[in-house]
Fold this sequence. Notes:
mainly beta, 4-stranded antiparallel beta sheet, 10 strands, globular
Amino acid sequence: xxxxxxxxxxxxxxxxxxxxxxxxxxxxxxxxxxxxxxxxxxxxxxxxxxxxxxxxxxxxxxxxxxxxxxxxxxxxxxxxxxxxxxxxxxxxxxxxxxxxxxxxxxxxxxxxxxxxxxxxxxxxxxxxxx
Length: 130
């Protein structure tokens, strides 16, 4: 089994329940941010707490890519997901022929391998239709 390395530290965590995205919440005004930030972008307060964001959300929009990238071979899907905390997350989407994408449908977070690099599995987050 290849070594697993996150594509970016501090954005998500893995766990027995599948993991979670890590956001920040302002202790003054309560605004929630993803990715986490060190200062509230609403009120300027500098005290924020780390929170786990909801694993489920709604697909706001998506696109299907047909040109290869350095990490993804076509076709691949990318989308924006609205989470209940009021944040919108940009992420890869798991594609299946059985369930085509529709704006507004429920999606769920998946933590797993995104690509391989230097003999390591690069892990990150994506969403799948539920």
